[in-house]
User: Fold this.
Amino acid sequence: MGKTITLSRATGVSSLPAPVRRVMSIGLKNVVVPLLGIVLFLGAWSLAARNIDTSLGQFPGPATVAQQFVSLYDEHRAEREKAEAFYERQEQRNAERVAQDPSYEPKIRDYTGKETFFDQVRTSLITVMCGFLLAALVAIPFGIAIGLSETLYTAVNPVIQVLKPISPLAWLPLVTMVVSALYVSEDPLVPKSFLNSMITVTLCCLWPMLINTAVGVASISQDLVNVSRVLSLPPLTHVRRIVLPAAVPAIFTGMRLSIGIAWMVLIAAEMLAQNPGLGKFVWDEFQNGSSESLGRILTAAIVIGFIGFLLDRGMLTLQRFVSWDRNSATR
Amino acid sequence: MNNPTPDRDVARDVILDISHIDVVFPTPKGSFQALADVDLQIRQGEFISIIGHSGCGKSTVLNAVAGLTETARGGVILNGREVDRPGPERAMVFQNHSLLPWLTAFENVALAVRQVFGKTKSKAKQKEWIEHNLRLVHMDHAMHKRPDEISGGMKQRVGIARALAMQPDILLLDEPFGALDALTRSSLQDSLMEIKAELDNTVIMVTHDVDEAVLLSDRIVMMTNGPAATVGEILDVPLPHPRERMALVEDPTYVHCRSEVLRFLYEKQRKVEAIGRHNGKSAARAGDDAKVA
Ligand SMILES: Nc1ncnc2c1ncn2[C@@H]1O[C@H](COP(=O)(O)OP(=O)(O)OP(=O)(O)O)[C@@H](O)[C@H]1O
Ligand SMILES: [Mg+2]
Assistant:
C-alpha cells in the first residue's frame, strides 16, 4: 500500500484519489468549458460592438449592458421609494382627516407611477404563466382524448394542422377584437390588455402540448394496454393509472416546447399590441430613441433570453421530479 | 393427482374448453387465417405447453383464451361459460414482462390485487396478499424497486407474482422465460414447478424450448405450421411430480418425450425459414423472431 502511494505521488495529479480526480474532471467539463465559451462570446461581442455605429451611437457592448442593468435597477428602487412615500403621505393625510372628522371615510388611491423595467418583467412572467397554464389545461385533457380515439383524432387532425402554423401576429388582432366584444365589464377583474396577450399566448403554445400528448397516448405499448384489459380496469382507472403515466414523458416534451413558444409569442404580442410587459418596454425604448435606448433594448433582450432559459430549466426540473422516465429528461 | 386420465373421461373435470376456434386477422392484403379449428380441452390442475415453430400461432391461441383476440368461429368456454372479453380469472404473463415502468414491483402487483380484491379484502389483507405472492416468486427482498432497477429474470418473477395474485382460474404464460439466459431460465422453471406444486394452478404455457416443455408439462400440444395452424399432435408426459431436472436427464420416458417433440418439429413439421417471412408482423414483435426454435 505505502509503496503504491509513494510511487504515484511522483506523477502529480494522478496521485490524488480516484473520486477526487473524477470530481475534478467533471468540474473541468461542467464549469470551466462553459465558462470559456462565455468569455469567448463576450470578447467577440465587444469587438463587434466597437465596429458598429448606428444613428443612436455605438452598438452597446457587454460593459454598456451591465451599466444599463444597474441603472434600470436603480430606477426601479427610486420608483419604489416614491411609491412608498406616496402611500405614507396618503395614510398620514387620511389619519389627520379622520382625527378631525370621525365620520370621514378615508379614500385610498393607488399610486400611478411609471412602470419600471422590473415591473414589466413581472407582468410578462405572470402573463406567460397564465397563458401557458390555460393552454395546458385545455391541451392535455383534449390530447388524451384524441390520443385514445382514432376517430376523434382523424376528425380534428386537419383542423389542428391548419391552426398550428398561424402566427401570433395574425391571432392578435382577432383576439383583441373578440375580447373587446365579449369582455365588457364595469369593473374588470383583469385588464383587457392582459387577456389579449394571455389568450394569444395560449393559442400559440397549445399545439405542441396537444400533439405531443396525443402522440404519447396513442403510442402507449400494446402490452400495457393488454395488462389493463386483462385486469378489466374501468375506463377512468385505465386513463389515470395506465395512459396518463405512460404519456407523461411525451406530455413534458410538449410542455417544454410550449413554454418556449409561449415566451417568444408573448414578447412579440406585447410589442405589437403595446400591452404592458417586456415587449412594450423594448418598443417604448425603440420609439424613445435616446442615446441609452440601444443599451436598454439589448439589456432587455438578454433578460428575455435568461428568463426563457430559466423557464425551460424550470420545466426540466419539474419533469425530473414528476416523470418516471429518467432518460427522457436529460437535455 | 396428475395421473393421465383416459381420453373418454376428460369431459368430467374439464375447466377450459377451447372449442374449434378459427382466428382470422384483417390485413391490408386481405384477411389472414392464423388458426383453423383449434380444439383443446384442459383439466383442472393440468400443465399444458404449446410448442411450435415461430409464427405458427401459439400466441394467438393464448390471446384467444385471454379474450384479447376475437375468434372468427368457435369459442372458449371456461367453467361452463363462454368468455368473450379479457378478465382477471385468465391471468396472463407476457413475454416481455409488461410491468408498468413507473410502479415498483409491489405497486405493480398491488394494481392487480386492488382491482380483483378491492371489494372483498381489507387494505391490510391486500398488503399481506401482495407480499405473500412476491415471496412466492422470491421477490420479497426487492419489492420496492422499480422495473428498471431489477434484472430481466426478476421482472419476469414479478410478472408471475402479479398473475398469481389475481388468483386466476387459469394461468396463461406466453414464452415467459424466452428472453432470459439459460441459468436464469432454469431457476425460474424450478420456481414455477414449486408454485405449481403448492397452488395446483391450471397453466397453459407457450414455449420454444423443448426441454422446458417436457420438464414442466403434463401434456404438450404441438402445433402445425401456419397459416391456418391447428393442433398437430398432443403428447402425454407421464412423469410423476415433483420432477428433478438432473434426475430426468437420463430417464427413458423423458428422453422419449423429448425426441417425440423434436421429431414432430423437425421431421413432420419441418420448416424452411425464408428470409423476411415474417415481415408482416408488427415491429413491436420483431424481438420474437430473433430466437426461432
Ligand atoms: N394482429 C395481427 N394482425 C395480423 N396478423 C397477425 C396478427 N397477430 C399475429 N398475426 C399473424 O398470425 C400468425 C401467428 O402469430 P403468433 O404471434 O400467434 O405466432 P407465434 O406462434 O406466437 O410466434 P412466435 O413464436 O414468434 O411468438 C403470424 O403469421 C402473424 O404474422
Ligand atoms: Mg408468440
